[in-house]
Amino acid sequence: MASRWPERVRIREVGPRDGLQNEPGFVPTAVKLEWIDRLADAGLTYIEVTSFVSPKWIPPLADAEEVAAALRRREGVTYAALVPNMRGLERALRAGIDEAAVFMSASETHNRKNINKSIDETLPVLREVASAAKAAGKTVRGYLSTVFGCPYEGAVSVEQAVRLTEALLEMGVDEVSLGDTIGVGHPRQVEAVLTELLGRVPPDKIALHFHNTNGLALANTVIALQMGIRTFDASCGGLGGCPYAPGAAGNVSTGDMVRMLHAMEVRTGVDMTKLSEASAFILQALSRTG
Ligand code: HMG
Ligand code: MG
């Protein structure tokens, strides 16, 4: 029987964005830049470095321009950023970001709390952003949040998640990242969602974005791996959370994910020693600013 385990997995490092957006203190720009550079040095080839959202909504990332301008760019690394609307895209393009990540939720209430629009109002905004980003020669990622549960509405239907994933792909998004925004998903649910979804969408278009509130992020990763998913989001130091999703704990830690994958003889390209040093670096910096 062919192995269900891949030889290699792609990791999308979201710490500098998802990790820092939820921190109470402002991490100095120079510290962000050194962390990002250490992550690249550790072999991470995709780093979400900041957000071009409203600084009033997300003050910890108010220095998006400064971060993007001073990146010590390394060949082979994609430097991505979150973009909510055309204003955000214009800022990101001026800043020279490689990939724009648009975002919306599978549940109406979280979508509204997070970006102040209904789902129906959001789709045309994201469509315009995706097509303008493509016209500018950029790749586009699409986050679909609250797929495994909403902090305001509870359960979210699989049908809704599939419908919105297809809508994102249809507007030209290269990869959809399904978010367990508050970390309530479990392996059987991941299996149910992926069974439905992978009947309609190829697995190489899908990434999974697990938060680890209930300690199930790695278990969820394993079932997704078995079902053919090869791209996972993770955050160095296990930082992360959405300020508009009460109860959201950190993302799955990049170190935990890499350690598990390497033990399973799945390659990631990440140097575990350098990653641990990058994690210690940011945790120490946060203990000074938090
Ligand atoms: P709004 O208030 O409805 O927008 O916010 P608006 O168009 O009425 O603008 C209000 C003000 O914001 C105006 O400024 C605009 O110019 C400004 P004012 O006149 O008051 O001075 N503005 C902007 N400024 C800078 N950059 C922009 C921008 N757009 C408007 N791009 C908006 C709508 C979408 C902007 C707001 O709701 C927002 O920024 N939300 C972002 C929330 C956020 O970042 N949440 C966390 C990320 S999502 C997440 O964590 C989940 C994820 O990790 C996956 C998972 O875990 O599931 C991705
Ligand atoms: Mg998240």
Structural overview:
Strand 5, helix 7 (158-170) and strand 6 form a beta-alpha-beta unit. It is globular and about 45 Å long. It starts with 9 loop residues before the first strand and ends with a helix. The mean pLDDT is 97. By secondary structure, the chain is of the alpha/beta class. It has a single domain (10-285), classed as Alpha-Beta Barrel (TIM Barrel). It has helices spanning 15-21, 29-41, 64-69, 86-95, 108-115, 119-135, 158-170, 187-198, 217-226, 254-263, 272-289; strands at residues 10-13, 46-51, 78-82, 99-105, 139-145, 175-180, 206-210, 231-234. The structure holds 3-hydroxy-3-methylglutaryl-coenzyme A and magnesium ion.
Can you give keywords for this protein?
eight-stranded parallel sheet; 15% strand; TIM Barrel; 11 helices; binds magnesium ion; binds 3-hydroxy-3-methylglutaryl-coenzyme A; 290 residues; alpha/beta; single chain; globular
Distance between the termini: 51 Å
CATH class: Alpha Beta
Low-confidence stretches: none
Which topology does CATH recognise? TIM Barrel
The Cα radius of gyration reads 17 Å
Overall structural class, as computed from helix and strand content, comes to alpha/beta
Helices and strands, with pairings:
Elements: E1 10-13, H1 15-21, H2 29-41, E2 46-51, H3 64-69, E3 78-82, H4 86-95, E4 99-105, H5 108-115, H6 119-135, E5 139-145, H7 158-170, E6 175-180, H8 187-198, E7 206-210, H9 217-226, E8 231-234, H10 254-263, H11 272-289
Parallel strand pairs: 1-8, 2-3, 3-4, 4-5, 5-6, 6-7, 7-8
Helix pairs in contact: 2-11, 7-8, 8-9, 10-11
Bound molecules: 3-hydroxy-3-methylglutaryl-coenzyme A (HMG) and magnesium ion.
Residues 18, 179, 181, 209, 211, 240, 242, 251 line the site of magnesium ion.
